[in-house]
Amino acid sequence: MSVLVTGIGELTTNSDATGDALVLDGERIAWVGSSRRAPAADEHVDVEGRAVLPGWVDSHTHLVFAGDRTAEFGARMAGQPYTAGGIAVTVDATRRATDEELSEVVRKHVAEALRQGTTFVETKTGYGLTVADEVRSARVAAEHADEVTFLGAHLVPPGADADTYVELVRGEMLDAVAPLVRWADVFCEEGAFGHDQAKAVLEAARAKGLGLRVHGNQLGEGPGVRLAVELGAASVDHCTYLSAADVDALASSGTVATLLPACDLSTRQALPPARALLDAGATVALASNCNPGSSYTSSMAFCVATAVLQMRMTVQEAVWAATAGGARALRRDDVGAIRPGARADLHVLDAPSITHLAYRPGVPLTHAVWRGGARVV
Ligand code: NIG
C-alpha cells in the first residue's frame, strides 16, 4: 500500500531530500520531491500547507516502572534537592508489580508518546536490580520499545555492598539480560557508581557485544563524560554540568551528548550548556528521560521548546537533535530522517513550520503521525 502526501508547507528531512511531497510505500519512504513530478500512489493525503518532519526519536526513557513519586516531586518544588535516592522507591514498587502491570505501564507511555509524534523509543531496565527483576524488566521493555538498554547499574540497592553488587551486575545479571538487550548503561555519579565501578560494568557489557551508554554529569561535574568518551560510548546522557575539558572531549569524539532538559527543570538543576557543545562541534541529541522520578513527561515537543527558549538552540538544531540526534545516539540510520529507504515515520504539525514548536510552547501541535508506514494519529 503506497501513500502520496502533498501540500507540505515546510518539509524538514534531515537529509539531502527536498520538496513539497513524498510517497510512503509499505514501511518505507519511497520518494521525496516536487508535487509536480509526484508518482502515482494507492492513496493521496493533502496536508494543506502543514509542516512535516520525521517522527521524534526519544533515545532516553525509563518506562519499566510501577508506583508514583508525586510526593517527592512536591517536596522538591518546596525546596528539597533531587538526590536520585528516590530510585529505591520505584525499585520497591516495581518489584511488587505483576508482569501485566509493568507491561501496561510501558504500553501506556509508548502510546502516549506516539500520540505526540514520537515514533521511535528507547527504554531501560534499572528499577529491578535483582537478576530476576532485571530480566523481567528487559522482557517487558522489549514488548513495546524499539530499543532496550540494560541499566542494572542504576543504583546500589539499599542494604547491598557496592562492590559485591557491581560484581553481580557485570557477572550473573549481565549474562542473563544481555541476550534481551542491545545496550548497557551505568549511572556514573556520586551516590551511584564511581568511575572504576562504571568502567568495570561497561567493559564487561562490551565483551558481551552490547553497545555502551552512560548517565553522566547529571548532578555535578563527575567522571561520566570522560569515561563515555574514553570507552567510545554511543552517548552520554544528561551532561548538565560540564567542564571546558568535557565539552572539548565530546566535540572531538563520536559520543553523542544527549541532553534531557525536562529532567533538569523537574529537578531544579541548571540547564545543560547546549550552545557551548554545539559551538564546539559536539553532536547533540534531545530526549525526554520519561521516568516517574526526575522527569515525568513523554513530550519531546516540550524538550524542543525548552531547548530553543531556554538553551539558545535554534529551532532547526533542536528539531534535528530530537530526531536525527536521537537516531545518532542509538546508532540507527533508518529513523530520524525523511529520505528514500528510511522508515516511514512522519510527524505532521498543525502549523506551517517547525518554528511553531517554540513559538507556541505547550500547545499540542501534532496533526497526524505515520509510524512504519501506518497512519496512527
Ligand atoms: O535519568 N539518573 C538516573 N536515573 C534517572 C532518574 C530516575 C529516578 O529518579 O527514578 C534519570 O534521571
UniProtKB/TrEMBL annotation:
Cofactor note: Binds 1 zinc or iron ion per subunit.
Binding, N-formimidoyl-L-glutamate: Y127, N291, G293
Record-listed Fe(3+) binding positions: H60, H62, H215, N289
Entry EC number(s): 3.5.2.7
Ligand binding (4-imidazolone-5-propanoate): R69, Y127, H154, Q218, S294
Domain of life: Bacteria
Gene Ontology biological process: L-histidine catabolic process to glutamate and formamide; L-histidine catabolic process to glutamate and formate
Family of the protein in this entry: Belongs to the metallo-dependent hydrolases superfamily. HutI family.
Protein name as annotated: Imidazolonepropionase
